[in-house]
Every structure is written in structure tokens, then in C-alpha cells.
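*** C-alpha cells ***
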Amino acid sequence: MQAITHVGDLRAMAKRRVARAIFDYVDSGSYDEVTLHANSNDLAALRLRQRVMVDVSSRNLASTMLGQRVSMPVGLAPTGLTGIMHGDGEILAARAAERAGVPFCLSTMSICSIEDVRDAVTQPFWFQLYVMRDRAFSQSLIERAIAANCSALVLTLDLQIQGQRHRDIKNGLAVPPRLTLANALDIATKPSWAWGVMMGKRKSFGNLETQLAKAGNLKTLSEWIAGQFDPSLNWNDVAWVRRLWPGKLILKGVLNVDDARHAADSGADAIVVSNHGGRQLDGAPSSIAALPSIAAAVGDCVEIMFDGGIRSGQDVLRALALGAKSCLIGRAFLYGLGALGEAGVTATLDIIRKELDVAMALTGTRDVRDVTGDVLWNDTRTAA
């Protein structure tokens, strides 16, 4: 097997091994994918400031996220349908994260359920919630997360209406999948992926199984899901969740200062600067472009996390330099999962950890908790 040297190698491997409709679901963004590409391009445009003759023989990558000690300031973001990128994908990712000493967040729209993941790990994990039209069902998810001893609730704010993803429509991605001749031929060339998914604990949304029992079949469940995204969501709903949830609360999907101030005033413990991976409002700014002003406005009163385009340890360093305390990765770990299962998620985290360590050393940084804007090159400044 070819040596794996960066996350791009895992992406290429996953593209070969995973059914095209599923890979495209992970890889794509909404509409023309302008914001999707801006997330990565704007990060790459930030130049790092090399320093020399600084004693960096002893370096520390350990930090905290919401008071939890982590081996590096990186967590696995909530991602839907993880369990069809690889059979039992949520369990495998949670195990890899636990072993690496970083947080894992389970999506509402996961294949493995909250209880499946709880039974597979020894440490608490985070749970991501969508507030649906059926508030009683949303409340039941919160109660299940409490019962599973989840250590944080991540409330996603930016999916009141779903952005159109052209590749999903063309590939017939739905629940159940729309089987076309092209899909059937593609799946036939991915037997190990298909077998792994078929051998997984579940084939549908594990957290929604009670709704599946009511719906009677996957088609009506899919229709139920489509009707549950609620355009009436507002800050009163955040207050409702805050009353129900006794633990740490993270608000994900903040992209401007006014919303960040509302989030900070809502009783949240942290916010995630995020544009949903470029999968919602196409034409919105990249997450990294939005980060500095948000960090300046509310960074002293709420913990700032960052999500959007992280593919390397250098990207993590860039986000920390602009005001984030930690970062979440989504596509990066999914590429590893699709490529090599649990070992691939571990490989993703190992790659990012090593890149972050080297980038810190070459910018003269000894402790990840001390990263500031000084690690970025600024053409207008006079080198000191």
C-alpha cells in the first residue's frame, strides 16, 4: 500500500473504496460550492511566520475543550450518515477519538444510536441536536443524551432549511437510496464497502428508530425527516434547550458578530464558528474569514471553537492564531474512516497531530495554549 503522508491520501483512498453517492455526500457542498472551497482556500492563504534559533526542544500540544483535558485542541465534529461511510462508522470513530484523547460528537442523523456508541466506549462523548418541529421528540433525544452521560450537547443552529446539494440529487441519495443503473454498477465495484455496511449494526438512522416504527417504512421516515427542519427556530428555542440540558452547551453554526453576541448571552458555554462545511448558504464567507471578528467580540465570555476546512495541523494552528481555542474536523476524519475504518480515523488524527507539532516548532511555539497571531506572517509588519 502506498505510504499515507497527508489527509489528501486518505481522501483519494476513500474515493476509490466508497460508493460514489456516499463519497459525494461527504465531499460536496451546496449549490456552486463557492463557500465549500473558500473554507479551504482561505485557510491555505494564511501564511505562517517562520522563526529560528528558538529553543523548542520541549513542546506541549495538550489543552482543554470545555474544561476537558485533551491531547490536542481538536475534536471530531458531528456528521450525518457516518455509519454508511463505513459500517458501524460512528462506533469506530468514537473509539479512535477516545484512544487519541480527543472528543467525539455523535450526530442526531447518525446510523448508530446514542446507546450503541455509549456501549462501545468508556468515556463520555458529545451529542449533537437538531431542534425539530416535533419538540417532544427533540426533548426525548435530550433525555437519551442525559441518560447516556453525554458530556456536552451541541445544538446546531444553521439547518432550519436545507441547502440544495446538486451531487446528492444527481446521485439519487435518499433514504432509501434511489437505485439507478449507474449506482448499481458503482456499488458492484465496491464489494468490501458494501459488505461492511451490510454487516453493520444498523442500516438506517439509529436515533430515529421510534419514528421509524411509527412510519412503518424508510420512505415515510425520509418524508418525516424532510418535514422536521423548522424555519421558525429562534433564540427562544435555544433558551428551551438550555433549560432542559443540565450540562455543557455548545452552539454550532455562528458566522457573524450579532449572532455570536446572542449566543454568548444565551447561557451557552461555547460557540462553533461554522458555515456547516459549505453545505448550507452558498456564498457565505469562509469560517476562517468570520473567526477574528467573532473572537474579538465574545472570546472573553464564551469559548470559541472553529469548524470549516481543516485538513492539516497547519490549519489548526492558523485557526488558533485567529482566536479559536480548539477546532472540529468533519470531512478529514470521514476520509480516514472511508479509507481504512477505525485505523483511518486514527491515521487522520496522527497526521494532524504531527503536522501541528512540526508547525509549532518551526514558528517558535512551545505550547499550543500560547498560540497568538504572532505565528502568522503579515506582509505589512516589520519583522522583529
